[in-house]
């Protein structure tokens, strides 16, 4: 996988480079400031981009803006955004254009090497990887929503779906059968008025689209 990294913290940036190259991926470019990001992405057209939200010169949302601009120029560009904290508005804005090939992780997750690499590979394949804390914020950010009709177990299933997990992983995590997971997913989609598709990323995209526009 060819990857562009945008991170202003030199130690973390070099750590990401080492981590990805050790895992067999190729880092084709690195950026340390916001203005460097888009030109690097357009020049190298990577398989995935790993971007910090807040970058120099202003440390506001330079990484996010670059991600949004890049996906306009390169539709479908897989982007994994890193953030120090849960910034709900940034996550919602990133997902507004569609959830395919998008991830939003807290930087602490990078330290969990297997989880981070799995998330990046899911995003590069067109899937979704949202940090559990981000999912929690998205699930609770609007009062009086149809989400209130979900049972606690259905909410757990929805949260794990939004993180990008398949039925087998959800079943293992919740210590239930895959048949039970399938039933819960059907109930979730029925209550949210979503198509009862239970295949691949389409169900995740449908749920995230609903959450973003509810």
Jot down its keywords.
53% helix; alpha/beta; six-stranded parallel sheet; 10 helices; 214 residues
Secondary structure: elements and pairs:
Blueprint: E1 2-6, H1 10-22, E2 26-31, H2 34-44, E3 48-52, H3 62-73, E4 79-83, H4 88-95, E5 102-106, H5 113-124, E6 128-130, H6 132-140, H7 152-163, H8 167-174, H9 178-192, H10 200-213
Parallel strand pairs: 1-2, 1-3, 3-4, 4-5, 5-6
Structure characterization notes:
This protein has ten helices and six strands. It is α/β, with parallel strands linked by helices. Helix 1 links the parallel strand 1 (2-6) and strand 2. Helix 7 crosses helix 10 (200-213).
Produce a short descriptive summary.
It is built from 10 helices and 6 strands.
């Amino acid at each position: 996988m060819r990857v562009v990294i945008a991170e202003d913290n030199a130690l973390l940036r070099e750590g990401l480079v080492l981590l990805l190259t050790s895992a067999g991926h190729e880092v084709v470019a690195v950026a340390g400031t916001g203005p460097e990001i888009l030109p690097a992405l357009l020049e190298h057209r990577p398989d995935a981009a790993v971007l910090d939200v807040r970058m120099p010169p202003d440390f506001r949302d330079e990484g996010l803006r670059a991600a949004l601009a890049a996906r306009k120029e390169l539709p479908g560009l897989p982007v994994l955004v890193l953030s120090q904290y849960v910034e709900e508005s940034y996550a919602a804005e990133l997902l507004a254009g569609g959830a395919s090939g998008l991830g939003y992780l807290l930087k602490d997750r990078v330290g969990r090497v297997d989880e981070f690499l799995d998330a990046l590979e899911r995003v590069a394949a067109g899937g979704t990887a949202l940090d559990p804390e981000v999912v929690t914020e998205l699930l609770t950010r609007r009062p009086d929503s149809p989400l209130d009709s979900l049972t606690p177990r259905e909410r757990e299933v929805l949260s794990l779906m939004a993180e990008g997990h398949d039925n087998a992983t959800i079943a293992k995590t919740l210590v239930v059968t895959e048949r039970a997971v399938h039933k819960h997913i059907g109930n979730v989609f029925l209550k949210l008025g979503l198509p009862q598709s239970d295949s691949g990323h389409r169900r995740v995209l449908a749920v995230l689209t609903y959450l973003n526009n509810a």
